[in-house]
Specification:
Helix content: 10-25%
Strand content: 35-45%
Number of strands: 29
Shape: globular
Number of helices: 3
Structural class: mainly beta
Largest sheet: 5 strands, antiparallel
Length: 441
């Protein structure tokens, strides 16, 4: 009898340990080939020159000031000071080229503090006075039905993450993930293109030739314009980009960030926050919890990680081995900032294994988009679950949405897309619906 009980105990122990072993195994398997490095965009040798060239840059808003610079965290840390009636006093220290301060503003200076214990060196000094105008919060919500926007026929049969913009001729363009499969992410290596003279078009967008086929994974394209130039960015695991003079013909392909600061870097979205200052929001994961990272650039070529825009912690429902906060998008509306992300990929190993076989246990969760708010574009707080997250504003039923404003009619729109084998709102096409902003009571 004792022998039987011992065997049962051993079997139960193995069964209890098996999920833990599988979880660790899956995480090691998906993480092992991924590289990380703070200096993935700026070489160590180039940091000092760019640091001197950029100096200390600022962005400010209602009651806050952000200081930005080029950092060299292997060699130095940074001490931030503010001047008051008693003189200069320290208000913070950081390893990265970013410091967010709330208050009345004033004169700031940043010191480089070498790790070899030599004398600190002044990096820069600035005077900034933030504004204090009222900044009400608005709640975005869908205000109409979904209608078909674009579905490719030649380059693929579906669209997942995508970007929408107007080219130099005034036409609206959609660039999106596709492949000649029904949604095999390992085969997504170029982008389908749709075009229409207006937005949203009554008959949908017309397909044009695909772009950005370089034999590597091509996920989550994003297009911005700056000083008459178009910039196309995409991932995963490193940052690709191309340029265009008209938003139609793309050239100058390069990889500008070869290794990100955190693993599972993908789905980049770029927001300009001041002249010659841009932020890149990306999916990421820490030791266990999912997050949205922010990288900073002063020229759209060199990027450095500066902080995490949104962290998740205990109480968060999804923390996949390959990150659950996908497709970040930040919108500024009425002097407030709104971060949306599609909250996908359930925790633990099983979901990742089943996805390989195109099995999604909870299909409605594929369209779960969370919207957070903040008075600045750098810090959207911590997500601890649906009822314990003050910055969580609302949930929208959409997957990998783009937020689109059409100046011709003054209307906002939201899109949704996704793999046809799992999406419940679409069947391979991108759909679009009108969006309205309702002032929060």
């Amino acid at each position: 009898m004792k022998r039987v009980l011992k065997r049962i105990g051993i079997i139960l122990g193995i069964l209890l340990l098996l999920p833990v072993v599988l979880e660790i195994g899956v995480r090691v398997y998906v993480e092992a080939p991924l590289k990380t490095d703070f200096y993935g965009s700026i070489s160590r040798a180039a940091v000092a020159g760019l640091q001197a060239q950029v100096g200390l840059q600022t962005v400010s808003g209602p009651g806050w000031v952000h200081l930005g610079w080029i950092a060299d965290p292997e060699k130095e840390t940074y001490r931030i000071e503010i001047k008051d009636t008693q003189g200069w006093r320290a208000i913070g220290q950081t390893r990265f080229g970013s410091f967010l301060h709330r208050g009345l503003g004033g004169s700031y200076r940043v010191w480089r503090v070498p790790k070899d214990r030599t004398e600190p060196v002044l990096l820069g000094e600035v005077t900034v006075r933030p504004t204090f105008e009222p900044s009400p919060v608005f709640v975005p919500r869908l205000s109409g039905e979904w209608q078909k926007l674009f579905q490719p026929q030649q380059s693929g049969s579906y669209i997942n993450d995508h970007t929408i913009y107007q080219d130099a001729q005034g036409n609206w363009r959609l660039i999106g993930i596709t492949s000649l499969t029904d949604g095999d992410f390992n085969q997504e290596k170029y982008f389908a293109v749709g075009v229409s003279p207006d937005f949203p078009p009554a008959q949908g967008m017309k397909e044009e030739a695909p772009i950005a086929d370089f034999g590597e994974l091509a996920w989550a394209p994003h297009v911005i314009t700056s000083e008459g130039q178009y910039y196309l960015f995409w991932s995963p695991h490193k940052l690709h980009q191309m340029t265009s003079s008209d938003g139609i013909v793309w050239e100058n392909h390069q990889v500008t960030l070869t290794a990100p600061y955190h693993k599972f870097f993908r789905d980049g979205m770029v927001l300009q926050v001041a002249p010659k200052q841009w932020l890149l929001y990306t999916t990421a994961r820490g030791w266990y919890f999912s997050q949205i990272d922010v990288y900073q650039s002063f020229d759209l070529t060199y990027w450095q990680y500066i902080r995490t825009a949104l962290r998740s912690s205990w109480g968060s429902e999804r923390n996949s081995p390959f990150a659950s906060m996908e497709s970040p998008f930040v919108v500024r509306y009425q002097n407030h900032y709104y971060l949306s992300l599609t909250y996908n990929n359930d925790s633990f190993f099983l979901h990742g294994i089943l996805m390989m076989f195109k099995i999604w246990l909870n299909r409605p969760s594929y369209n779960d988009t969370l919207v957070f708010h903040a008075d600045n574009p750098y810090d959207f707080g911590v997500y601890r679950g649906a009822t314990r997250s003050p910055t969580l504003l609302t949930r929208l039923e959409a997957h990998a949405p783009e937020w689109v404003y059409n100046p011709a009619n003054g209307q906002w729109y939201l899109t949704t897309a996704g793999w046809p084998w799992v999406a419940t709102l679409t069947s391979g096409e991108v759909a679009v619906a009108p969006l309205e902003w309702v002032k929060k009571p």
